[in-house]
Amino acid sequence: MVDQAKIIIRAGRGGNGAVSFRREKFIPKGGPDGGDGGKGGSVYIETDPNRNTLDDFAHQQKFEATDGDKGTGKKMSGAKGEDLIIKVPLGTIVTLKPLSQGKIEVENIAVKGMPREQMGRLITKVIPEIESKEQLIDFDKPGMKMLIAKGGTGGRGNVHFMSARETTPLRAEQGQVGQCFQAELSLKLLADIGLVGLPNAGKSTLLSVLSNARPKVADYEFTTLEPNLGVMKSGENRLVIADFPGLIEGASEGKGLGIKFLKHIERAKVLIHLVPAGESAEGAFEKYRTIKNELLSYGGEIETKKEIVVLSKIDLVSEEKVAEIRKYFMEKKVDILPISSATQKGIKELVAKANTR
C-alpha cells in the first residue's frame, strides 16, 4: 500500500491578450478590438470515499490544469482553462511547498497587414508573490474540497489601452502564470476501531468476523502486510475497522512492519488490543505490555485512546487457563475480555464495548 507520495501541482497559465483592429468593409480604420485572454484552470483536491491508498500517485507525479486560450479580434475573450480535481483518500494530509514560477518573457505580436516595424508588443503583467511558507491541510472530512493552486489571470487585449492620446494601441498583456506547488501527500487511515497486537494474534480473523472484510488468514506471522479495512454494522451505526499489521518489540524505533503503520493507528478512535491465549498468564501479559510500550513510545494521541484488551483464541485452551489469565490481568489492573472468533464466544460483548462512544 502506498501511503506517501510527492507530486507537482501546476495551475494553468492565463491566455495572452490580443492586439487586433476592426477591419470591415466601409470601415477601413476601425478601432482596437483585441480580446482578453482566458483565465488558466485551477487545481483542487477533494476527498474520495472510494479510495483507501495513494497508489494512483505512484506512477504519476505531475498534475497540471490547462492553460487559458489567447484572446482574438472582435473583442472575443479566450476560453477559460479547465480546472483539475485531484482525488485523495479520506485522511490524507497535504503539505504544500511553493515552487519558483520563473520569469515571463516579452513576446512580439504581429498584426495582420501591419508593417514589421510597427508590430505590437506584449507587456509583462506583475505576478503577485505567493506565500513562501509551507501550508499543511488535513483532508479529514467526507466531501472536503479545497482550492490548492489558482489559475493565472488572462492578459488584457489592446482594446483596454485605447485613450485620447493613443487611439491605435499596439500592446496587450500576457497572461499570468498559474500557481505551482510541490505537494507531499501522507495518508493516515481514518478508522473508528483499530485492531492491534503481535503477529498472529488473530486480528485478521476477528476483522472477518466483525465486518464484511475478507483478509488473508493463515497460521504464521506477518500474514497481513498492509492495513485491511472493514465496516461493522451495529444497529444504525456503521463503524470502520482497520486491521493493522503486526507490531513487534522495537517497532517505534523502526523494527518490523509496524513502524510504517503506527501513524495510521493515531487516527483510530478505539483500539482493540488482541492477546493470544496460548501461553502462561505471565507470558500473555508480557505480550500485552510489549505492544502497549511500543504504542506509548510512538507518542502522539495514542496513549489517550480508549483501549479494549481482548484475550483471543480461547477455543484453543482450557477454561481454567482462561480464568488464570484473566485473574493475572485483573491483578495488574487491566480488564481483559475473552473471545473466540472461531466459536463467536464473547463477540457480542466486544461489539457492545466497541460501540460505546
Considering the chains and any ligands shown, give keywords for the structure.
single chain, 357 residues, alpha/beta, Spo0b-associated Gtp-binding Protein, Chain: A, Rossmann fold, 2 domains, five-stranded mixed sheet, 14% helix, GTPase Obg, GTP1_OBG_dom_sf, GTP binding
Written account of the structure:
This protein is an alpha/beta fold and 357 residues long. It folds into 2 domains: 1-187, Distorted Sandwich (Spo0b-associated Gtp-binding Protein, Chain: A), CATH 2.70.210; 193-354, P-loop containing nucleotide triphosphate hydrolases (Rossmann fold). The chain is 14% helix and 25% strand. It has a 6-stranded mixed beta sheet, sandwiched between helices. Helix 4 (319-331) links the parallel strand 16 (306-312) and strand 17. It is rod-shaped.
Helices, by number, come to: 5
| CATH-level-4 superfamily name of the largest domain | GTP1/OBG domain
Level of helix content?
A: 10-25%
Q: What is the general shape?
A: rod-shaped
Amino-to-carboxy terminus distance: 30 Å
Order of helices and strands: EEEEEEEEEEEEHEEHEHEHEH
Fill in the CATH topology of the largest domain.
Answer: Spo0b-associated Gtp-binding Protein, Chain: A
The gyration radius over C-alpha positions equals: 31 Å
What is the total domain count?
2
Give the helix/strand class: alpha/beta
Spatial sequence of strands, sheet with the most strands: 13-14-12-15-16-17
* Model regions low in confidence, pLDDT < 50 over at least 5 residues: 102-131, 215-225, 250-258
The portion of residues forming beta strands comes to: 15-25%
Q: Describe the largest sheet.
A: 6 strands, mixed
* Average pLDDT, all residues: 82
Keywords: Cytoplasm, GTP-binding, Hydrolase, Magnesium, Metal-binding, Nucleotide-binding
Domain Obg: 1-190
Organism: Candidatus Collierbacteria bacterium GW2011_GWA2_46_26
Cofactor: Mg(2+)
